[in-house]
Each structure stands twice: as C-alpha cells, then as structure tokens.
Amino acid sequence: MDIIVCVKHVPETAEAELKIDASGKTIEKTGLVFDINEWDDYALEEAVRIKEKFSGTVTAITVGPEDSDSTLRKCLARGADKAIRLTDLKFTNSDAYATAKILYSIIKNLHFDLILTGAQAGDDGSAVVGPVLAGLLGVPHATMVKKIEFGEGKAVVNRELEGGLEERLEVKLPAVFTVQTGINEPRYVSIMGIRKAMQKEIRVMGLADIGLNESEVGEAGSWLKIEKLYVPPVEKQAEFLQGSPDEIATKIIEILKSRGLV
Predict the structure, then answer these.
(1) 9 occurs within a structural domain
(2) How far apart are CA 134 and CA 125, in angstroms?
(3) 236 in any annotated domain
C-alpha cells in the first residue's frame, strides 16, 4: 500500500511568549523552536504502521521553507521512504486552499492508495487542507479519524464526533483521511534511523516544477487573507474581594443588585 503523508513544519508555542512582527500579519519567529505539527505526527506514525503491516511505501510531503527539512528528516527517520519539499517565495502567505492546490499539483502525478494528514494545524488552527485536497483529487475523505481498518478496496474508519461519540464509516480507496491525536502512540526516533535519514535525498520542487502560476498560489491564489494580527485588548479586570465570609457575601449581593441581576 502506497501512502502519502502531508506534514507541516510549525513553531512550538505552548510555552513561548509570542510577539507580533513588524508586518502586523504574523508572529515573530526568531528564537522559536520548530517541529512537526502535532496532528501530523500521529498521521505519520499511522502511515508507517500500515506500511509495516501491508508493505508498500510512505512518502512525506510538505509545503515550506528550507528549514522544513528537519521535519522531513524526522519523517524519514521514523520510517518514511521518500520526502518532498515544495518551496518557493511565491508560496508565501498561501492559505489552506492555496496550500491544498500546491500539494494537489504534485500528488496528482503520484501513485497512492491513501493520503493521511493531521486533523488540523497547530499554528493557525486550520483544518481545511485535507478535505480540499480530497475535493481536488476527486476522492472520498473522512476527518477526525481515530481508527483505520482495511478490507478489499476499502477502509473502515472511526471518526471522532462531539460529546465523546464516534462514527464508523466505510470509505472506498483511494481516499484522504485527516487523523486525530490518540489514534496511536508515535514512536521515538532511533539514532540509527537519524543516521539513515541524513543519507536520504529530499526532493525539492518550486513553482516552475508543479504546473501552477503565480495567480494560483500565495495571497493571489488564496480565499483568505490576514488583514491584521493583534492581541485582544483587556476590557475587564478581575476584582478580588477581601474580608470575612459575611462581608464578602454582602459585597457580592451589592454587586449583583447594582447590575440588576437580582
């Protein structure tokens, strides 16, 4: 089974102090640590497990700058067989739709039985690339996938719904699945795997190689454009009440009455 995994190189922002850069449209990336998108990490692991069970190949593809090679090297070290980086200054500011078009332009020429992506991106929260890619390719898709089983020419998947519920679907292959965290436990990268990954080639392609023009990528080819990025203003502040329990209770009642709540 030949599997393509679409991955993204994103900054780790959980414990970082973020600042908006001079353009006002993105964050200042200097000093931030970048790694594979969390959801894509699970998608990669699932692809490698499927390959180990059914044989075949895993190809990791990303749209990003040269720095994205570190994420692709991690994919290779974890079991991917090939890696492709789509890089061009004209790709800058591509939204999810434009990114899906870029991926489609190369994937449509590759053989695949299954395409896996993360359920969403950790940097901008987008969850659109997978479904749009499936639409462009003309293949079925399922989102928020938590389990994948295979039959003859089909896959049976469990996808996460709200309220702790799951939906079980039968999907004809080839297909695109966006993977939710928790579908597996991503493996650690071994030293031997890292050494082998450093010797593998990463195929690099730009706008001239994929059959698109400038009007189809970047801001020009996007549905969404960021006008301004800003920190929400603080409109209200918490008030700490001090005193005995009776005094605090009295103050709370007075506040509620003053606001017409009682």
Answers:
(1) yes
(2) 19
(3) no
How many domains, the chain?
1
> Which of the listed ranges 20-29, 118-127, 172-181 does the model predict with the highest average pLDDT?
172-181
Domain range holding 165? 2-221
Backbone angles phi, psi at 17, to 5 degrees: -90, 110
State the pLDDT at residue 67.
95
Q: Are 95 and 25 in contact (CB under 8 A)?
A: no
The better pLDDT of the pair 125, 7 is held by 7
Asked whether residue 237 is assigned to any structural domain, the reply reads no
Q: CA 160, 52, 83, 74 torsion: positive or negative?
A: positive
Distance in angstroms (rounded) separating the CA atoms of residues 46 and 119? 13
- Minimum mean pLDDT among 4-8, 67-71, 190-194: which range? 190-194
pTM here is: 0.86
What pLDDT sits at residue 190? 86
Q: Which two tokens stand for residue 20?
A: 């908006």
- Which long-range CB contacts under 8 A does 48-51 form with residues at least 24 apart? 48/78, 48/79, 48/80, 48/187, 49/184, 50/1, 50/3, 50/114, 50/148, 50/150, 51/1, 51/3, 51/79
Identify whether 241 is part of a domain: no
